[in-house]
User: What shape does this take?
Amino acid sequence: SVSVWLRDHTHQMKGFKYFEKDMTSAVDFFCSSQQPNGEVFDYLAPSGVTSREPPESDVEYLLVEAVYGAWQATGDDDWISGKIPALRRALYYSMGHPHRWSPEYRMVKRPFTIDTWDFIYNPDGIFGFTGYKTIDANTTFHIMHGDNTGMCQSCRLLAALLERLGLADEAEYWRGKAEHFRQRVAEVCWNGRFLRHMVHIDPVTVQGVNEDDQLSLSNAYALNRGVLDQDQRISIIEEYQRRRQALAGEYFAEWFSIHPPFPPASFYSSKNRGTTWTKNPGEYVNGSIMPLVGGELARGAFENGFEEYGWDILRRYAAMVKDTGKGYLWYHPDGRPGISSKTTLATDGWGGAAMLSALIEGGAGIRDLDARFRRVRLAPRWAAAGISRASAGVQYGASGAGFAYDYQTDNGAVTISWHGAAEAVEFHVLLPDDLPQFRATSGQGEVESKLTVVRHSRYADFVMRQTEGTVRLARE
Assistant: This one.
């Protein structure tokens, strides 16, 4: 038996929603065990004990994301209406509790951890604190971008749920909160190339590493949270590509938990022992290689004009897993799996789910814009992979709702046939290089369409309001 962590559950939902029938029981538990002030427990242990890791300020926005994901798979509006009070309380807790909120910055804060993890910066116990996960009088607070990009996304998700329930005025309120976090992230966290790891509220002298150069894992998540403008997203992706090239002899992949890592013992106290998992650079969240980062990076690459790079990441991951038949949460820079003890399992649900999500939503391009695939964005990007014929389909395990299509290119034309539950399909089709100009037609005649350019990539955009059909893109 193992603990059920809300964080892992939420991120792994991106993959297991396509086969899991029970999407609500875990979410129901974390909502029902919520504290009166809105605080959410971090995990449920096998013993039945619930707990919260004090340094982590991401749990509440993750609850919103988890509830939204469960609703998408089930489409149960009655169920979601009962969860709205818990979601409100969770976000208000993040925006008000003294351990979570900075009135000065008007942003979510946390102790100095590595990105979203829970180990507090304490090189060899120099701050004299009482524990490596404890908030006390010696704790210094900081702004971590991932907490705030997550809040931006979850405020927007809550607004969408409220809109669905007919609560338009409150939905507008939460959209305003989302915009607040978007602006504050841009003003406070952007360093000109990517999102700075920590913005220090309380002064801390960081030893042995240049903080201005530290690229932490929530940069990859930020690509997919609707927070950054396109120039910023492009800049982050190019930063990962640049480091991949520069560090090719040292790191087998660019999916860093953080790079460069902190020196030995930065999150490990010789007095309090702490955790050996972050003691050395290149281990776990202190500079290892994580497929969960690669999956988010690939999804962001597909959406921002780096389609070939997105396919490259997926192919490298597929080859890695195929070679060994195993997948781990983290790897040493040289490719050795991060096995922390004999209990480590070679079944990385978190990274695998991120990669699967990148394949489905990014490469194959099937994205649910509502619930139960009632409204779908279809953005097939097979052209960037050199694939001329493909079939793709997905289905939610909880409801059976799904969407599928066949794709084919032939003599400079693209033909797509689809079927499913979608009342509307928003097409965003990557055009092959040999289709410079196009005309979209269906069985009903010409389809109104437009050309959209994303970076250097050309897309055909149009909407079809029918559950099945065939459309053809050909030269004018």
The first helix runs from residue 6 to 16.
